[in-house]
Amino acid sequence: MSEATTLARVIVRQIIESGITDAVLSPGSRNSPLSIAFYQAEKRGLIKLHVKIDERGAGFFALGLAKASGRPVPVICTSGTAVANYHPAVLEASHTNQPLLVLTADRPARLRRTGANQTTEQARIFGKAVRYFADISGAAYPMELPFNSLQSGPVHLNIQFDEPLVGDSDESWLDKITKNAPKVFDRKSPGTFHTKSTRGLLVIGHDRAGLSQESVLDFAARLGWPVIAEDPLSFKDAISHASVFLTSTKIRSEINPDTVVLIGRTTLSRSVNALIAGARKTIVIDPRMATVDQDRRADQKFLALPKIEVPAADPDWVATWKKLGERAAKVVAELNTWSEEICAREIARSLPSGSTLFVASSRPIRDLEGFAAPRDGVQVFANRGLAGIDGNISTALGIATAAEQTVAVLGDLAFLHDVSALTHVGEANLRIFVIDNDGGGIFSTLPQAGIDGFEKIFGTPHGRDIAAIASAFGVATTTVTNSADLVKKVAAPISGCEVVVVKVPSRQENSDYLKSIYAKMESL
User: Fold this and answer.
1) How far apart (Å, rounded) are the C-alpha atoms in residues 380 and 399?
2) What letters, b where the CB count within 10 A reaches 16 and e where it falls short, cover 2-21?
3) What integer best gives the mean pLDDT of the chain?
4) What backbone phi and psi angles, to 5 degrees, belong to 395?
5) What SUPFAM superfamilies is this protein classified in (predicted)?
6) Domains of the chain: which residue ranges?
7) 179 backbone dihedrals φ, ψ, rounded to 5°
């Protein structure tokens, strides 16, 4: 019996007994004790082990799995640069309070700073991005893992394994393991929200601050105010296309709210943030103010949904918002130029009820916010903690592993950024729609557009055949160039992994078209 084997078995046993059902592993030598212990546990049906060769992708796959399952997910790697490759996923988990349990294998502390192979300072490598850190040596057991810390974000255990790394093959240590139900962490109500305002507005950020959709829907119903939702596919009673018609400064000035209640963060539209900034009073509800957003500013701040004591909303105020939404919906419904905006509208409308959707950052998520008609029946995910385009395919694969039918909408650069994830797609039923405009389309809609050197340093045209690249990984591919074919692919059943390349007009054409749509809002 090796000390490393004993330590690994203690850790894996506690993970299983805590109710964790999945683990994500990247192969390596120093993490052999954990790899073997997890494999033995999987043979007994005690856990599902997912093997991903690229640690960066493995981290995002585990993040997606945690998002979709609502349970902590361990992610396990060897020492050295493998650990650093987890950092982007750990940061995303930190800014969304996701329960990522990072298990990094290390050499004994006595070998640090001695020139030993594959040895660096792994202790506290993630800094303040984790809620708990421990540098565990072989003498640490018996020990208790810090599962409670996972309720507010990622946890990092750096585990020192001394040789020999491979012990006996006995599996009797698994005989009396009891799988418990995962612990559910409930936050107590932080108090009561009082106001005399009858002209209030509820704004819901894309990830709802990690709060459940059901609880936010109940809160919105009790509040009775007009609702702007960055994710309109989760709130069917939200005002239609608010981020689009609020681009009009005239409209914003006419419907300036007295009080805004903001759940989470608004990170997508300058128009919505401009409206919030003009309110007399702002109330923020977000658990992350206890972890990563301690300096949020608002007139009142709550870490959970408060009780409500508010008067009935002004009927004329509610009617004005509804009328604006209806007029904007008419304009959006009449759009008929093949474009990224049409893609967002048709994908949102055509998704079968019960679908799961992952949306990449940059233009796709903004187009869905602006051009998707509010509806329900779709579970929506996105990496909005830091809004990166890295790891998007991996995250979508992790989500799809815990769902039945998943659609992902990515830009072409987000696809290329994480294309190595296609080396091992597993058993996920995932259809990836890649909006291909040959480069970074969002920059054509930002102040950087048109500056000297724009194409080289912002537009970054790639000139690659997305379908050919996906096919080279053995993934089924299709290319669509019109609304009718797009709708058919969105509505079709999903079996396995498939990439659908959506060829759209140039980035400049799309920017010009978007401006023309905004111009129409001035006459609502």
Assistant:
1) 10
2) bbbbbbbbbbbbbbbebebb
3) 95
4) -60, -45
5) Thiamin diphosphate-binding fold (THDP-binding) (SSF52518)
6) 3-174, 192-328, 335-521
7) -85, 120
